[in-house]
Amino acid sequence: MVNKKKKKKKNSKKKKKKKKKKKNDDKKMEKKKKKKEKKKKKKKNNNNNNNNINSNNNNNRNITNKKQTMTDGKIIKR
After folding, report:
1. pLDDT, tens digit (0-9, with 9 covering 90-100), for 7-59
2. Which domain holds residue 65?
3. Is residue 52 domain-resident?
4. Which sign does the torsion angle of CA 57, 58, 60, 63 carry?
5. At a CB cut-off of 8 Å and minimum separation 6, what does 53 contact?
6. What Rg, from alpha-carbon coordinates, does the chain have?
7. Into how many domains does the chain fold?
8. Is 6 helix (H, G, I), strand (E, B) or coil?
């Protein structure tokens, strides 16, 4: 048997991808900014609420000692 040469496959031309047009980039950025600010505000409020709850818990606890430690390790004298 005679070895036949394999035919080389031609590389098919690759299609160029069309670049998407940037649309309303400013609007998008504005929206992102607003979302970020909202998140920040929510986090801040949440922290404030937690602080209030903590301080209320500290106030409501029956204090037998004059010294009471807070969560940050500071000592409050009553």
Report:
1. 777 777 777 777 777 667 788 888 899 999 988 888 777 777 777 766 666 66
2. 41-78
3. yes
4. positive
5. none
6. 34
7. 1
8. coil
